[in-house]
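User: Structure tokens for both sequences below?

Assistant:
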Amino acid sequence: MSQINPLKSSAFRITLVYILLFGLSVSIILGFIYWSTIVYKTNLTDEDINAEIKALSAIYARKGYPGLVSVLSERIEQQRPGDSTLYLLTDHQFRPLVGNINRWPPIAYNRGGWLDFKLDDLQDESGKEFSARARTFEVENRFNLLVGQGMKDLQTMKALVGSALVWGLMLTIALGLIGGMMMRQMLRSRLGAINQTSRKIMQGDLRKRIDTRGTGDEFDQLATNLNSMLDQIERGMDGVRRVSDNIAHDLKTPLARLRNRVEELKMRVAGKPEEETAAEQIIQEADGLLLTFNALLRIARIEHSEQRKDFTQLDINSILADLHDLYEPLIEEKGQSLKVETAAPMELEADRDMLFQAFANLIDNAIKYTPHGGEIAIRSYQKSGHWFVEFSDNGPGIPEAEHENVLQRFYRLDQSRTTPGSGLGLALVIAVLKLHNMQLSFQDNKPGLKVLITIDRPGRPDKNQVTAS
């Protein structure tokens, strides 16, 4: 059976969607935390600056210019290391009068607005270029006052939160991958059990059922529904088989009586060519029907056999040798050749008569469809822990599209309908191989057909399936 491309499997797509949704949701949460933290810190800075400006405005209103200069000088002198509050008072031409920075920021003046700027000639404690946020306002059209704060703390916080965001996202992706793989494994496990059982059922073991875990989830409901459907299908097919088997059983006896009476009639019309020929044709038709009924009954007995009472220890190669001795005269009579090659002994527990009949059916088909002068070969060999028995010929073969169909009861290819037969030979072969846990497959012999039977070595796990490819 062909393997599904992992990139095209539903489990992979579900895992991918899970990871994307999980990563997106966590990214949104972390992004919101980042945004709200930075906005909160920025708002605090703006509130401090506004409060300082209001205080200085009140001082100027009470004490005028000398009082404002005095307070600014005092606050600058009292600043502690690490205090990043900025003060600068200039005249209307932006020449510094009082302040802890020596020049107006090199950006456009925004009256009463906010300024975000950097000072190339000033560095913070870490040696980086000094960046600040400030607000300016004009004092009686005579002076310009700037009050601000260094943004080192805010930048540090941005770096920390940004780093935490990156690591959190990476951790989220890692956890998402782990969770996704666990989900994928769970899906594969549940669906794999259903697929494995389904393959065994498709290969003929209608008694197989899908296991449930008793959780009552969607998979258990699916398995329960499929099992109910399989029960109905099995009952229907058993009913059809019982009807055909009962018909074969009930008609076999009267058909045998009819044949005997035609034999008596043939004796009575001896010497009359036309009547004798007609009686002989009826006898041949009756013999063909009896063979068909016998084949149906034999298949039914094999399929419904639960015991292996006739199984004995035997060597597969001995059956092949007996087949060679039995069919060699017939093959020579038809101008064909038979070649048998056997490997080391292949001993196992099996029903010799059943296997002999199954192998004989395969040789019969090869003889029937191989032309005059054709070659038929039987080979046994061992490879990769399995035993193989191979039947090949150089006849017309079977189209690949018909490989499954020819294993059904009464199915015959169009070119085979003019030859004697009932279409039950391969059905009997499948029934026997299934009882012995063997597998059958068809291959192109170029030209002709190759029938390959795969046998598990004793002591290896049985596959308990029959496949046709």
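Moving on to the next sequence.
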Amino acid sequence: MNYQETLEYLYTRLPMYQREGKRAYTKDLTNTIRLLEELSNPHQNFKSVHIAGTNGKGTSAHAIASILQSAGYKVGLYTSPHLKKFTERIRINGLEIREDFIIEFVDRIKSTIESIHPSFFEITVGMAFDYFAKERVDIAVIETGLGGRLDSTNVITPEVSLITNIGFDHMDLLGDTLPKIASEKAGIIKPGVPVVIGEKQAETAEVFLRKAEKEGAELMFALPSNYRSETLVPDYLVKNLGGVEAVIKVLRDQGWNISDEQLMEGVKRINEQTGLKGRFQVLSETPLTIADVSHNEDGLRTLFAQISELKARNLHLVFGMVQEKELAPIIDLLPKGAKFYWTESHVPRSLPVEELAIQTVVRGKTGDCYKDVNEAIDAATTRAGSDDLVLITGSTFVVAEIDVL
């Protein structure tokens, strides 16, 4: 198979959460363990940092990888989902995984795929671990998919773990209370491995303390970061820097050589060094147009607070969601007075724009409907004045389909 045929095989053969939702979620590690055994357990051949959380885990993963890269290390980075290309999920020092490796990997394990029927995510985890081991990275930063306890990445024994925060998301799979969700995330806490909690929350702190005590793991609640840059630093980044800095301190204590200057450089060059996309990403200056993948209550609340500081004359909000979300609290967060452009993505999980329009109008918010995000953006930018703001958000998949991203 060539590269496109290989991708088509992965997309059509394997259940994919981004496309199919909970049907593709595997509730145990059996397939992952079996797959890694077939690969001679590559995850045992490199050091790692493991990251879970409701919001901020992707940002934190990219920031830690960038800092380690600035410190001169060869750094693997595994994140999900991708926005534009499959290869975005697996990087070394910012460079995406080679297409020829993907072809060879799938060909090598095809019989195993057809024997154990893994999910798309399980295969990508195995691929990442195999790639990092073969490329001899110094350390890999590994972001969980859903939860933590049963996540396919939860086979590694990292140098340090980070749990960014706990919020209401994926409640159909992880639980309907913050302590229940925290318990799933706490599943990444390993015996004797230090763990950083990025945000201390009254409802969840005891969950982490009990789990850490049970595992004999040192636990630290991160302090807010004092970091400020001369340029605009989005709130989502500042909010997560305390946890990032605490992780770096643990690594320093373990003997990793990372200076304060390298930490600052890594933060400032996060986009350049890791290819981070879709997080407060400026697409155009006039009118100011920003894309952001925030998609749950906590993430959107932080985003809208940041947007309010920009003092735009009018806000043009291009917005779409996926089906599993509880709509009412999210709709209520949408800024009053904004001009709304409802849209949808082309993945099966996307909430149909007509349904979104119905749900928003009954809560006092009306807008025009567009079947494609780019049509919605065109309409918004046409109507926007030079001192207005166009914001595209609500779903990773809506942001992923922006042509100019």
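User: Anything stand out in the second?

Assistant: The first strand starts at residue 47 and ends at 52.
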